[in-house]
Amino acid sequence: MTDQRSPATANFLSRGARDISAAVSRQPAGAWLVAGAVTALYLAFSTAQWNRFDTPSWDLGIFTQLAKAYGGFDAPIVSIKGEGFNLLGDHFHPLLVLLGPVYAFFPTGFSLLMVQNLLVGLSVLVITRLAIRRIGNAGGMLLGAAYGLSWGVQAAVAVQFHEIAFALPLLALALEATVETRLRAAVIWAGLLVFIKEDMGLTVFAFGLVIAWRFRHQAGLWLAVWGLAWMLISVGLILPALNTGGTYDYADRIDVGAMLANPVDSLFTMLSAEEKYQTVWLLLIAGGFLWLRSPLGLIVVPTLLWRFVSENPGYWGPGWHYNAVLMPILFVALIDGILAARQSRRAWLRSYSAAVVPVVSVVAVMLLPSQPLAALANPETFQQSARWDAAHRLMERIPAGATVESGVVLMPYLVPHTEVLWIGNENPAPDYLIVDADDWSWGPVRPESAEDHAEETYPGEDYELVFQESGYQLVKRSG
Q1: Which residue in 427, 419, 379, 423 sits closest to 399, CA to CA?
Q2: In this structure, are 336 and 424 located in the same domain?
Q3: Same-domain pairing of 372 and 458
Q4: Which of 157, 319, 367, 389 is the least buried, fewest Cβ under 10 Å from its Cβ?
Q5: 3-state per-residue secondary structure call for the chain
Q6: Residue 3: Cβ within 10 Å count
Q7: Count of Cβ atoms closer than 10 Å to residue 468 Cβ
Q8: Which domain holds residue 324?
Q9: Mind listing the pLDDT tens digit for each residue in 388-428?
Q10: Closest by alpha carbon to 237, among 92, 345, 341?
Q11: Are residues 204 and 322 in the same domain?
């Protein structure tokens, strides 16, 4: 039987290889060039971050623990968030199970940074090829580069891995299919977004309504129902069921009752705050305003609404990763807007449709000095942390599988070999505790003695200093 199947298997693999090769060759060369260049820039940026111990949030450590669990065929229990904390009870992102195989082969937090950059690059490839096919080679490449270097994407890469990285290529593919009037593909790609994060259900809802209007097809209405249903199910049932506290942790960020009781005040709150105006202004100029001419631009509305009505100021501005999902929508809406403007009866609009790509490109270049990638022009960006060797000597003192309490900076480096706890939680007494004098997560006051800090935090436990160098202190629990 084995011998009989071998030729069939060989033929199958051969056909698969030919199909892949044909698919690759069908992509415009300009799209590969732009996507490759943008991906290389982000890979360089993330590599420099990793080597400098530049860890702007605890999320990379959290998602590295999730990937480690999935790589071992375990539930995503993330001790950084708390003892026994299931990360599927924090946000609804089952699609992140795809990180498991990646981590199984490359067990390091650095792998997640590379995955994110490759996903960004894939979205750049899709949007650039669409732009080239629709508006021409030179203009398409410029527009693809403007998307790849857009402020929302740069901000997301700078704060390291988040689940929205998977949304970028899915959005790009769904939007591309919509512009190219491929209804089934648009619905499928957009439908998958609900498995990335619970708020993406609102995006899918808006996407479905746009598709229903554009195609005059009920599939769009079913997509809208699918998106809204998954948002309600995840927030109302799944997340509370899997959360250790039995609730949706982010329910208090938006007071729906207060909004309904006093809509005038809610509207005023939504339109107040400088950060919100800054976000809207950057969206307008990044797309040369012409993206507003496309119905696809309406898909940004749900994301902006839930962020702007939230009482959390961190959601309002152009920083962090919250604007990344708006960038594919904005730039594909711009492509669609250009196509519509070319058919306009207004001469000035037809003229602007020819000028908008250079305008958008100039805006992208003008914004670069204030964006994260500007750091690549500074040679110091590529210098390895002076404490790199000391940190790794410290980590080598911790046995595999031991529990270790740490600040944010070293978390993603510790996760592959240890069970990491965060200093801000009420944890069971760890086997080891790290005090890093340069870790920002301690706040303005850092413990002078790791021994004293550990024994005060865990009364009745004895800790001894086993490593002290370059601002690091490592203590070990005795007995």
Answers
A1: 419
A2: no
A3: no
A4: 389
A5: CHHHHHHHHHHHHHHHHHHHHHHHHHCCHHHHHHHHHHHHHHHHHHHHHHHCCCCCCCHHHHHHHHHHHHHCCCCCECCCCCCCCEHHHCCCCHHHHHHHHHHHHCCCHHHHHHHHHHHHHHHHHHHHHHHHHHHCHHHHHHHHHHHHCCHHHHHHHHCCCCHHHHHHHHHHHHHHHHHCCCHHHHHHHHHHHHHCCCCHHHHHHHHHHHHHHHHCCHHHHHHHHHHHHHHHHHHHHHHHHHCCCCCCCCHHHCCHHHHHHCHHHHHHHHCCCHHHHHHHHHHHHHCCCHHHHCHHHHHHHHHHHHHHHCCCHHHCCCCCCCCCCHHHHHHHHHHHHHHHHHCCCCHHHHHHHHHHHHHHHHHHHHHHHHCHHHHHHCHHHHCCCCCHHHHHHHHHCCCCCCEEEECCCCHHHHCCCCEEEECCCCCCCCCEEEEECCCHHHCCCCCCCHHHHHHHHCCCCCEEEEEEECCEEEEEECC
A6: 6
A7: 14
A8: 26-377
A9: 999 999 999 999 999 999 999 999 999 999 999 999 999 99
A10: 92
A11: yes
Number of domains the chain is built from? 2
- Whether residues 282 and 220 fall in one domain: yes
CA dist., res. 219 & res. 179, Å (int)? 16
Do 140 and 148 contact (CB within 8 A), yes or no?
no
What is the C-alpha separation between 189 and 129, in angstroms, rounded? 17
CA distances for 10 relative to 1, 22, 23, 361, angstroms: 14, 18, 20, 47
Please state whether the predicted TM-score (pTM) of the whole model is above 0.90.
Answer: yes
How many CB atoms are located within 10 Å of the residue 415 CB?
Answer: 28
Does 175 lie in the same domain as 291? yes
pLDDT at 452 over 60: yes
